[in-house]
Amino acid sequence: MSRVYNFSAGPAVLPEEVLKEAADEMLDYKGSGMSVMEMSHRSKVYDEIIKDAEKDLRDLMNIPDNYKVLFLQGGASQQFAAVPMNLMKNKKAGYIITGQWAKKAFQEAKLYGETVELASSADQTFSYIPDCSSLDIADDLDYVYICENNTIYGTKYQTLPDTKGKLLVSDVSSCFLSEPVDVTKYGVIYGGVQKNIGPAGVVIVIVREDLISDDVLPGTPTMLKWKTQADNDSLYNTPPCYGIYICGKVFKWLKKMGGLDAMKKHNEEKAKILYDYLDESSLFKGTVRKEDRSLMNVPFVTGNEELDAKFVKEATAAGFVNLKGHRTVGGMRASIYNAMPKEGVEKLVEFMKKFEEENK
Ligand SMILES: *Cc1c(COP(=O)(O)O)cnc(C)c1O
After folding, report:
1. What H or E segment, with its residue span, contains residue 266?
2. Å from CA of 154 to ligand 1 middle
3. What phi, psi does 116 have (nearest 5°)?
4. 53-106 per-position pLDDT tens digit
5. Identified catalytic residue from 101, 225, 252, 324
6. Is the CB of 98 under 6 A from ligand 1?
7. 0.90 cut: is pTM over it?
8. Which ligand 1 atom is at minimum distance from the Cα of 77?
């Protein structure tokens, strides 16, 4: 067996320990005589898996009791619709456009009400986070929406926008559990798990209880109503059972690693190795304004498309895979999520230095 260093933006690298454990339990989960894939979601043994997962996530993020945790399907993209359906009482919401995911959410919300662009960084290819300290927020906005870490462009909010008391809704797909967060600052935090937590097919929605009600937009499908899911502890219908089981294992792994404070430190150390090199390199350059750099997704370019392609090709051959940048940005992107070991980043930088030497 040989594992590569996988810099994919998602689905992405998972802790090897978790994968091994899952492999060990594949045929017989804890004496049940079956795989987690084969068991009823209503069984006692599965009930323990999903309850444990929720409890561990609550511990990790310090989620207050007045927030519900939902394990759902449909990916982050489905929440682009669920958010307005559940929250647009006045049919008006504000969006901050910091990249494609925010834009997609913005466009989806337009199907349900009036959407206001509060700020945008489209003018410079989303290479920065706009100043959100004094936004023009109308009184009748139902919520303010952000994409907190921009997976494609590699930016992250270092401070949350001043929403002037309005609800904050945040898509944290690509920074989920990468560092501690103060859940009380948000009305809703949600994310697909395939970037930093588990296998594709699960989206976790953390929503304040008072925002969960039957008062949703007319025509909201039963499945997209958070109340349906909350009332049934995410078991209204068959949940993505196996995916939730793997997420649960990752939560336990994170706890063992020291929780989110330790993760933040680990992620800062890793990102620093790469950013420091990008800052001193005469070949590679980061594409993001320094203050807004993400700890998770690091885009960079040589400034020469042919050289970029050569780099990606040689890196792949050397075992550093999925470094090609998003088609809208070009160049390269190294996604260095929680499960990417420090050694992976160190070796990548070594490889980049060698490439720089050879391509002067
Ligand atoms: C990947 C991603 C999405 C889309 O997730 P799906 O689960 O594929 O719908 C949305 N938002 C962000 C920030 C992402 O990184």
Report:
1. helix 259-280
2. 14
3. -110, 130
4. 999 999 999 999 999 999 999 999 999 999 999 999 999 999 999 999 999 999
5. 101
6. no
7. yes
8. 9
